[in-house]
Every structure is written in structure tokens, then in C-alpha cells.
Write a structure and sequence with these properties.
Layout: E1 6-10, H1 15-26, E2 30-35, H2 38-52, E3 57-61, H3 67-80, E4 86-89, H4 107-128, E5 133-138, H5 161-182, E6 188-194, H6 209-222, H7 226-229, H8 231-238, E7 249-251, E8 254-256, H9 265-278
Parallel strand pairs: 1-2, 1-4, 2-3, 4-5, 5-6, 6-7
Antiparallel strand pairs: 7-8
Helix pairs in contact: 1-2, 1-8, 3-4, 4-5, 5-9
Bound molecules: NADP nicotinamide-adenine-dinucleotide phosphate (NAP).
Amino acid sequence: MTQDRTILISGASSGIGLATAEALATQGARLILTARSTEKLKEASQLITSKTGNKNISHHTVDLSSQSSIRSLATQIKNTYEKIDVLINNAGGVFPEFKLSADGLEMTIATNHFSQFLLTNQLLDLLKRSEAARIVNVSSDSHYNGKIDFESFQKNKGYFIMKAYAQSKLANVLFTQELAERLAGTPITANSLHPGFVKTNIGNKDTSWYASAVWSLITAIGAISVEKGAETSVYLASSPEVQDITGKYYNKCKEKTPGKQTFDKALQKELWRISEQLCPI
Ligand SMILES: NC(=O)c1ccc[n+]([C@@H]2O[C@H](COP(=O)([O-])OP(=O)(O)OC[C@H]3O[C@@H](n4cnc5c(N)ncnc54)[C@H](OP(=O)(O)O)[C@@H]3O)[C@@H](O)[C@H]2O)c1
């Protein structure tokens, strides 16, 4: 099933994305890895090849908080590859303080939601060339605590790191549901997932020393390995069991009911409308 499928994974230089890439390389996929650092991507590609023997790995740098950088990545991808079979929107981050992106969007929502929205829409033509394409959006169970406040996309409305993160992860699920509806009748599926509480450095990057110390402590105690954390992404990207499943949320390779607010059709549509307004596709 996965042999020779072309799979693009964002945020593949470390953590869950790197472990996802390694597992899919083992299954014989052609991989396109993306992240911000060329050095880290080179190291990741070499590591995956040395561990799996798969040499079919290329990489492209992108800053997913920047719309122009995403557009330029999409152009490179469209000029280089004939089709994409699976797009895994995995990259994400947390930001301790309110900060605006180059496009004037709050950094958490820009990096975690607008990147998925823009990259997916920019690559739809390539996905449509696949006989059966899949879009896999990495969200989080944090979305259950999320609330969408459209004004906070551009303004500081009492910024708090976990509030912003939960909002962005709720946006991932809402976006996936709306995308699945828009793609109904095409051979492209779209699903979102919670990878588990995973031992990565996400809470040590771009954060204050105390947030980083708390993250290190709690992940040391309770978090699962990156290999385990990658399992649901790998499952949704490759398992024949979910070939025709779309618009669902997964955890531990099983369907799970997402937060009540994710079923709000008006909210799904409003998020798409505002996203398109702030980030033309
Ligand atoms: N760890 C958990 O417990 C957990 C739980 C639920 C959900 N998640 C989700 O899982 C996903 C992966 O997180 P992780 O824990 O594996 O984190 P991680 O180890 O920090 O990996 C994040 C990846 O995203 C890339 N990235 C970050 N910002 C980027 C940007 N602006 N442009 C391009 N690439 C960027 C990073 O690469 P560079 O920094 O090299 O660019 C890295 O490859 C995220 O969506 C996160 O929200 C994680």
C-alpha cells in the first residue's frame, strides 16, 4: 500500500514528524521532508536512510509561520513532483508570549493552523493527481479546551500560551471537518488526530526557562516515545483500514469523538471564510 507512495511530512526534522517519516520509510514510501533548518533536515534524511535503507528521501526548507515561505515551498513542490499521495501536516509549536508573524497573525495560530490551511490548499492539485490521496492533520486533545476567538488571530486578547495552543488545535479539527466536506466525492480523504502525550522538545523551544523546565519534568514522568506518538499518523497515512474514512478524529489508531464545538457547521465555515480572508488561497 505505502510502497512508492509520495508522502510529504511537515515538521519532519524532529519529534513525532521524524518518527513518522522513519516508519513510513520502512514501508517503502517516497518521502518529502520539510522544516526550517536545512542542516537538521539533512541529518534527518541521513538518519532515516541509515536506519531503513530507503534512499528515496528529499527535503525542502520552509518557515510555516510565513505565507510567502509556504507559497514558495508549494511552487518548488509543484515544479518537482508529479503528484502527492499523502500530506501529513504535522509541524506545530507553542509560544509563551504574544507575537505577530510576518503576515500580522498571532504566531501560534499562524504556525499551527494557517500553515495547514494554506499548504493543503496550495497542494490540492497535486493531491488530486493521486488515485487515492490522504490528508492527515496532527491536532491534539488540547482542542477539547479550545475556543475560537477570531479577533485573537490578529490582536492580543489576554494572551496565554495554552489558550492559544488549544485554539490552534481546535482550528485543526474544524479545518479538517470542513475540508473533508469540501472534498466529498473526490478520492481525497482528510482526518485529524491526537498523537498522545509525547516526549519531544516542543515545550523546550521558543519558551521561557520555567515553561521549558516544567515540560521537561512532566514529559520525563508521563510521556510516550516518539515512535509510539507517530503510530496514529502512520496508521492514517498508510493503513488500508482507513482508506475511505474521512472527516474523523483519531487517537491510538482508533476513531474518537472530538470536542462538541468541532461539529458546529457554522463555525467550520466561518473559520474557513476568515482563514481565506487573512490568507488567500
Ligand atoms: N508532543 C506532544 O505531546 C504533542 C501532543 C499533542 C499534539 N502534538 C502535536 O504534534 C506535532 C509535532 O510536535 P512535536 O511534539 O513532535 O514537536 P517538535 O519535536 O518540536 O517538532 C516540531 C516540528 O515542526 C517543525 N516546525 C516548527 N515550527 C516550524 C515552522 N515555523 N516552520 C516549519 N517547521 C516548523 C520543527 O522543525 P524546525 O524547528 O527544525 O523548523 C519540527 O520538525 C505538533 O503539531 C504538535 O502540536 C504534540
